[in-house]
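Field log, afternoon session.

UNIT: design team B
ACTIVITY: writing a sequence onto a fixed backbone
BACKBONE:
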């Protein structure tokens, strides 16, 4: 079963790797794969989640939290009792908001995991990206280089380099923000 899936992913992505200027270190391919995954996730989010309703629920939740904190600061027991009565409704809204935000994840999880599995098993797993020192520090890569060996062993081969997964995460973060803006999302994340 997995061989069939891996073969299909090879058929789709191997031409991309071959078109990459450096097929043995496919930095551009990971950027394109990050764009594809970001596009799938963002479109699923756009189609499966009512953005206006989510924004309205978040707005009501923030207003409720502000009222609750203000009443606590003032020591207004009467207002706190009233707000605690409303709290059950707010919790129901929070639950609805959480379940709505999970819909796209449920739909996109399997394809994304399969693509990750392919990336880890392909030539991409050996990817090394040399970063300018400023980008290296802005992306907090030294922290990842400190934490990473605790989980998987080994150390970076040289300064200012990252592997395929961190490069993918950087690309996906940027692509997702651009796509969300382009598709008219009202909020960042």
């Amino acid at each position: 079963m997995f061989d069939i899936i891996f073969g299909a992913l090879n058929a789709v992505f191997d031409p991309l790797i071959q078109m990459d200027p450096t097929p043995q270190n496919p930095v551009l391919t990971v950027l394109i794969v990050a764009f594809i995954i970001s596009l799938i996730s963002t479109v699923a989010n756009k189609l499966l989640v009512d953005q206006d309703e989510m924004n309205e629920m978040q707005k009501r939740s923030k207003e409720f939290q502000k009222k609750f904190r203000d009443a606590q600061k003032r020591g207004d027991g009467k207002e706190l009792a009233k707000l605690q009565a409303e709290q059950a409704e707010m919790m129901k809204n929070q639950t609805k908001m959480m379940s709505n935000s999970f819909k796209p994840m449920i739909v996109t999880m399997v394809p994304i995991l399969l693509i990750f599995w392919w990336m880890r098993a392909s030539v991409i797993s050996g990817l090394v990206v040399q970063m300018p020192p400023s980008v290296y520090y802005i992306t907090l890569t030294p922290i990842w280089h400190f934490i990473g060996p605790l989980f998987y062993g080994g150390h970076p081969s040289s300064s200012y380099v990252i592997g395929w997964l961190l490069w993918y995460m950087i690309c996906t973060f940027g692509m997702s923000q651009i796509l969300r803006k382009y598709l008219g999302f009202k909020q960042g994340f």
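LOG NOTE: The helical segments are 2-19, 27-48, 51-74, 77-121, 133-138, 141-152, 164-182.
NEXT ACTIVITY: expression trials, pending approval
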